[in-house]
Every structure is written in C-alpha cells, then in structure tokens.
C-alpha cells in the first residue's frame, strides 16, 4: 500500500465482490492457473498492466501474480477505472496507480509511476505505456523483455514504430488473434457499446436512425446489434471494400455529411480523429446523441464543440448537453470517451476471459522465447489461439469432430 495511488482503500470489499463474480465466468483463466500455477513461469518478473481497470482486468492481474509475477496495474483511459476494483487489487497485494476521472496529465503520471518499478514485461491497451517508453521514459526501456498489445489502436501505433525502425522491444499483437478480434471486437464491443448507451440514456433504440462510423469488426458488432434492437442503421466508411460489405449486410451507406441530417444516435468506431466534426454536428437533428467506441477520445471533435457551443450543461450523469449557435441541442455521452467502459462495465466477462487468456499465454511466450524474438510486432502463435478456443468449447460442453488421417492426407495433397 506504500506505493499505490488510488482513490479510497475502504472500497475494497465492493471491488472484491465484482472480481469474484467475474472469476466465476472466466474458466479459461482458471484453466491457465491450473496448468501453469505450479510452474510459475513468470517468477521474479515485474509486469506492468495498462488495461481498462475493472473486474475482468483484475482477474488477469491476479492470474499473473499466481504465475509468479510482481504485478503493477494502471488504467488505459481516465474514465474507465473502477475505484472499488482498484482498491480490491491493493488489498490483494498488487500495486495500483489509477483513479477514475483524473485529468489527462495525472493519468500519464500514473502510467509513469507504474513503469518506475523495474518493469520487465508490459501488457498494454492502446499503446500509452509503449508511447512513454519510446518518448519521455526511454530510460526505462532497456530493461523491457517485451510485451503484448490488446487493441487495434495500439497495434497501429506499434506497426508505425516498427516501420520506422524505432520499436525498442518485441510486442505480441494480441488484437490480431482470432479468439480476440472475432469475439472481443465484434461481439464484445457490440453488446457493451449498447449497454453503455442504454443504461446511460434510458431511451428506446427501436425505430431510431443509428449512424455507425467505421465498419471494422467493432463497427460490425455495433451495427448488427443496433439492427437487432430495431434501429435503422446507416454506416459511414472511407474504405470502399468495407462500404460494400456494409451495403451487402443490409445497411445504408453514405457520407457523414448526409448521415448527420438523419441520425438520432451516432457511434464512432474508427480509431481515427475528427470523424464527427463541428460542421457535421451543425447538420444534426435537435436532440441527437453522440458517443464513441474507439479507444481514444479524438473521434468526435469535442474541443471545437466546447469552444463554439452557446451553452454546455450536465443533462444527466455521464451526458453533457450542448446548445448550438443554430438553437439546436445535441448530447454527448461520457465526454466522447469509450462509451462501453466510461458509461458501463466494458465487454461481457466471458468475452474478456478469451482475450485475457491470450494476454497471459502470450506473456509467457515472450518470456520463454526472449532470446529468439527481435524488436518486431509478432502475431499470436497459432497454438495459443487454438488452446483458448478448445478450452472455451470444453467450458461450454461442446464437442467437435476431428479430421481422420485420410482426411488430413487429402487436404494436404494436390491429387484428387
């Protein structure tokens, strides 16, 4: 408790309830503990975790501790930390540097405090730890064995570093694993985004026009679940292939300038900046609701909105209302930060069980192969993906067929 920076240690009991509830629905992490707990492959290593700090993340941290690591945890977004969970981790002898709702400057102080613990291995979500180790805190980078990156935005940043020849240690692109992006990005983001919107606004989705910006795996999940809730879905894209895919999936496709005139609810999921600009906002209907499901709060131009709006006020907890110069009002959820975490509990537990299992196993892989890995971005080894899928199926009581030797031979042959 001497190092940790948290809001209130007395909250630990409520946080522990959340952690224990999540643990019941995380059979893959439990299986990893059973298989690797006695071997303790991370013994003596200092591991820094910068992931949205809530109950599922806490179970990942506790697993790494059980595998022998000294674990130091911070958040990966100023509004996604749950203070009671942070307190519970400190109660379980894990150092935490995170408080919900801090300013961006203080958030980066917490990231630095996490790294100032002779860190050997990082688990990043969005690339902020990696960014610091390549900029302000390069003095701490030489000790790093390697690490893992959770999300699309972070992998993009890693690829840029690699392309420029500046990446200082090997990183595993966890986001690119099949058992991550097929389920976490699509199903997890789809469900949790609407959880955040509906619990925050308490409005009907059926019959409304929902504009989804970005039709990657996250956007597909958001659009599909909006459709299931009875919404009329419009997709905005810059990629012609994804635009055709959205069209053939049954959605309207158009430019943001046109979609702005029709939408009731706008959701960004692109990983890019200024997707919804003030010029778009001026075109929106009175009462339009805006939110973001991308990692950083740059997809909606909140800075210009704050500057040019006639009035800004708190319309409801986690919702700000803006009166525009044309007299219309629009509403922004969670300051344009990740709506599924800033206004809800993030992805469903079972989804994050798969993603965090890949994080844990990839971390072990980095340590065991430290002498072989170069300063590059690596995909998750296929055997890790398959292990996670097989354990997940077993936990569901599902059995699948296996190829016979004859079938394997047939599939490997060029002959008829």
Brief digest:
This protein is α/β, with parallel strands linked by helices and 416 residues long. It has 17 helices and 15 strands. Helix 8 runs antiparallel to helix 15.
Structure report:
The chain has 416 residues and is α/β, with parallel strands linked by helices. The chain has 2 domains: 9-176 and 346-395, Adenosylhomocysteinase-like (Rossmann fold); 188-337, NAD(P)-binding Rossmann-like Domain (Rossmann fold). The protein contains 17 helices and 15 strands. α7 links the parallel β5 and β6 (171-173). α2 (27-36) runs parallel beside α15. The longest helix has 24 residues, at 178-201. The termini are far apart.
Tell me the layout of helices and strands.
Layout: H1 12-23, H2 27-36, E1 46-50, H3 55-66, E2 70-74, H4 83-91, E3 95-97, H5 104-115, E4 121-124, H6 128-134, E5 146-149, H7 152-163, E6 171-173, H8 178-201, E7 209-213, H9 217-228, E8 232-236, H10 240-248, E9 252-253, H11 256-259, E10 265-268, H12 278-281, E11 288-292, H13 302-308, E12 311-316, E13 319-323, E14 329-333, H14 339-342, H15 349-368, E15 377-379, H16 382-395, H17 405-412
Parallel strand pairs: 1-2, 1-4, 2-3, 4-5, 5-6, 6-15, 7-8, 7-10, 8-9, 10-11, 11-14
Antiparallel strand pairs: 12-13, 13-14
Key words describing this protein structure:
7-stranded parallel sheet; Rossmann fold; globular; 416 residues; alpha/beta; 8-stranded mixed sheet; 17 helices; 15 strands
């Amino acid at each position: 408790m001497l190092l940790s920076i948290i809001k209130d240690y007395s909250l630990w009991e409520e946080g522990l309830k959340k952690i224990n509830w999540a643990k019941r629905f995380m059979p893959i992490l439990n299986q990893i503990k059973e298989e690797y707990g006695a071997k303790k492959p991370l013994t003596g290593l200092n591991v820094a975790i910068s992931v949205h700090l809530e109950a599922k993340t806490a179970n990942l941290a506790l697993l790494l501790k059980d595998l022998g690591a000294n674990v130091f945890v911070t958040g990966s977004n100023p509004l996604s930390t749950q203070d009671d969970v942070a307190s519970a981790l400190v109660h379980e002898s894990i150092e935490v540097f995170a408080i919900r709702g801090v300013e961006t400057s203080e958030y980066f102080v917490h990231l630095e405090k996490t790294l100032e613990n002779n860190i050997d291995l990082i688990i990043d979500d969005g690339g902020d730890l990696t960014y610091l180790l390549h900029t302000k805190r390069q003095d701490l980078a030489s000790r790093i064995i390697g690490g893992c990156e959770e999300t699309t935005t972070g992998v993009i940043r890693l690829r840029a570093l690699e392309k420029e020849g500046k990446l200082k240690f090997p990183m595993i692109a966890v986001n690119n694993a099949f058992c991550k992006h097929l389920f976490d990005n699509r199903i997890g983001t789809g469900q949790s985004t609407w959880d955040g919107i509906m619990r925050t606004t308490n409005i009907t989705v059926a019959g409304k026009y929902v504009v989804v910006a970005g039709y990657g795996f996250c956007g597909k999940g958001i659009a599909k679940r909006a459709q299931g809730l009875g919404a009329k879905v419009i997709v905005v894209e810059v990629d012609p292939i994804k635009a055709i895919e959205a069209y053939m999936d049954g959605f309207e496709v158009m430019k943001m300038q046109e979609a702005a005139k029709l939408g009731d609810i706008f959701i960004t999921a692109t990983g890019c900046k200024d997707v919804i600009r003030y010029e778009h906002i001026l075109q929106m209907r009175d009462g339009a609701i805006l939110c973001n499901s991308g990692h950083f709060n740059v997809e909606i131009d909140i800075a210009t909105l704050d500057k040019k709006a006639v009035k800004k006020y708190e319309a409801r907890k986690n919702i700000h209302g803006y009166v525009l110069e044309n007299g219309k009002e629009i509403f922004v959820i969670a300051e344009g930060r990740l709506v599924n975490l800033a206004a809800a509990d993030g992805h469903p537990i079972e989804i994050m069980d798969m993603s965090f299992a890949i994080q844990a196993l990839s971390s072990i892989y980095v340590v065991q192969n430290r002498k072989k890995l170069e300063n590059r971005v690596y995909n998750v080894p296929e055997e890790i993906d398959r292990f996670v899928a097989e354990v997940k199926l077993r936990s569901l009581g599902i059995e699948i067929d296996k190829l016979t030797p004859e079938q394997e031979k047939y599939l490997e042959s060029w002959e008829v």
